[in-house]
Write a structure and sequence with these properties.
Shape: elongated
Distance between the termini: 53 Å
Strand content: under 5%
Radius of gyration: 18 Å
């Protein structure tokens, strides 16, 4: 597993992908992924994210890596995690929906609008429509960055529970946000 520390990005990605092998012990997989996830290279992180559903079927030990990747600086990494959240949360005995909540709140309260967008998308993807999740979605309708409101408008589920949010977005000051409901 020393190859995950190699200088070559291609070698590192290949080494990360080799962790799928059932011959690699779980603790070694976790250690390698934890070390590899500290890289600054988004392609390596994206390869980790793509691998997680295959590795973490019965383990919540990977949740910190999932949460770390959701907060990554690279949009491609955040998108990759968001696309895998449903699968990861559906694992047997998964605690991801519980473990991720504090991070989602922190991300939404961030000054970084892209983290606020990721928080909204994760809430919707995971169906976290309890009081806290709905509070974040409602507050997103007032976000000063129109791109945050646009992401909400583009992804908000349709239905009576979401109608108050939809009604606010229908009259948003940004025409692109409003246009999603016409």
């Amino acid at each position: 597993m020393q190859l995950t520390k190699d200088q070559s990005q291609e070698v590192k990605i290949t080494a990360i992908e080799s962790l799928k092998s059932p011959k690699v012990p779980s603790d070694a997989k976790l250690k390698c992924l934890s070390e590899a996830s500290s890289t600054n290279e988004w392609r390596e992180k994206e390869s980790i994210v793509k691998l997680l559903p295959e590795l973490s079927m019965d383990s919540n030990e990977y949740n910190p890596i999932i949460i770390q990747m959701l907060q990554d600086d690279a949009c491609a990494v955040r998108k990759a995690v968001i696309s895998k959240l449903s699968t990861l949360a559906a694992r047997s005995n998964s605690t991801l929906k519980t473990d991720i909540r504090p991070a989602l709140r922190e991300m939404f309260e961030s000054n970084d609008y892209q983290l606020r967008q990721a928080s909204i998308l994760a809430i919707i993807k995971l169906g976290l429509f309890d009081e806290d999740g709905m509070n974040i979605l409602e507050n997103a309708t007032k976000d000063y960055v129109s791109n945050v409101r646009y992401v909400l408008a583009e992804n908000i589920p349709k239905g009576p529970k979401f109608q108050p949010i939809i009604n606010i977005l229908k009259s948003d000051k940004d025409e692109d946000v409003r246009s999603l409901f016409n």
